[in-house]
Design a protein that fits this description.
By secondary structure, this protein is α/β, with parallel strands linked by helices. It contains eleven helices and 14 strands.
Length: 307
């Protein structure tokens, strides 16, 4: 859907983006992740033509990015901003018309979204009368009210309580079911695990990783297994011999324990079962696949180690 080719961006003497290239696939949730100051928002502003790259190019379905493309995008900026004196309904209609909808289309879409979010009663309230969370909902609706095929969300979950976070996550899943493309910039690694098909990890303006989430998590496995068993802790330790290291263990109830172990060499899942099944009553053996939070921390640490 969108291809970024060797994007560089400098601000005076500071290089904010250093040769960043990746492709955003159609109909997927693409995660843009990285620490504060990594260059994520700069990249998003380039996608929206708020900034121009110092060099490099952005292609949309094989064509250079144009203002026409950008008008068809949905964009939720990290820095929220609404006209405080306008009413909710009039503000959303105004923004929808700026995106090319007729007055009739804009009104129909606004009514649909207010009803969908359960806030129709607020349509004639002024923006400055809204709570922060309610204003965040209006800002989200403003980003999608014109029915964009590409939706760019910069920290969309910030400022929301857990219930409203789930509301936004559910809407993003619906967009994907509709074959829309979502670019999702966030610090919330749990939502990356839950939502994103692919990610690009940016740090200090450089692309550190670009891959499918499942593949990244699999590549960074460290051989940990979670075990639940009934039996004696000493028997458990003896059964492991020298093939596995016990990382942690805890007693869940009398004679019922949970442990995390790590393989020392080339042992496999079958080896875990073979080592333990003769000595204990096994309830669970589960390989611990690292979360995206684990992968994120590991890749950033490795980058600093190499410097």
């Amino acid at each position: 859907m969108i291809e970024l080719v060797d994007i560089q961006k400098s601000f005076q003497n500071k290089l904010a983006l250093d040769g960043v290239s990746f492709t955003i696939p159609k109909g997927k949730v693409f995660g843009l992740i990285g620490p504060n100051g990594a260059g994520k928002t700069t990249l998003i502003r380039i996608l929206n033509q708020i900034l121009s790259p110092s060099s490099g190019s952005v292609m949309v379905q094989g064509m250079p990015l144009t203002a026409s493309h950008v008008r068809s995008f949905g964009y939720l900026p990290e820095e929220r901003g609404l006209y405080r004196e306008m009413t909710v309904k009039n503000h959303l209609i105004f923004l929808a018309k700026l995106r090319g909808l007729s007055g009739k289309e804009a009104q129909a879409n606004v009514i649909h979204w207010l009803k969908k979010f359960g806030i129709s009663d607020w349509e004639n309230k002024r923006i400055d009368a809204l709570s922060k969370g309610m204003a965040q909902k209006i800002q989200f609706i403003a980003a999608v009210v014109h029915g964009p095929e590409v939706i760019i969300l910069d920290e969309p979950l910030s400022g929301f309580d857990p219930l409203n976070i789930q509301l936004i996550l559910d809407e993003i899943k619906t967009f994907v079911q509709q074959d829309k493309t979502v670019v999702f910039s966030t610090h919330n690694m749990q939502s990356v695990d839950e939502l994103c098909d692919e990610v690009a990890l940016i740090h200090q303006g450089k692309l550190l990783a670009n891959d499918k989430v499942a593949d990244l998590r699999s590549k960074h496995r460290n051989g940990d297994y979670k075990i639940r068993f009934r039996g004696n802790a000493v028997a458990f330790a003896n059964a492991l011999w020298t093939g596995f290291e016990i990382i942690e263990t805890k007693e869940l109830s009398e004679n019922y324990r949970e442990a995390v172990i790590r393989k020392r060499a080339d042992q496999s899942f079958n080896d875990v079962f073979t080592f333990l099944s003769g000595s204990l009553s096994l309830e669970l053996i589960e390989e611990q696949i690292p979360s995206m939070q684990d992968v994120f921390v590991k890749l950033i640490a490795a980058h600093h180690h190499e410097e």
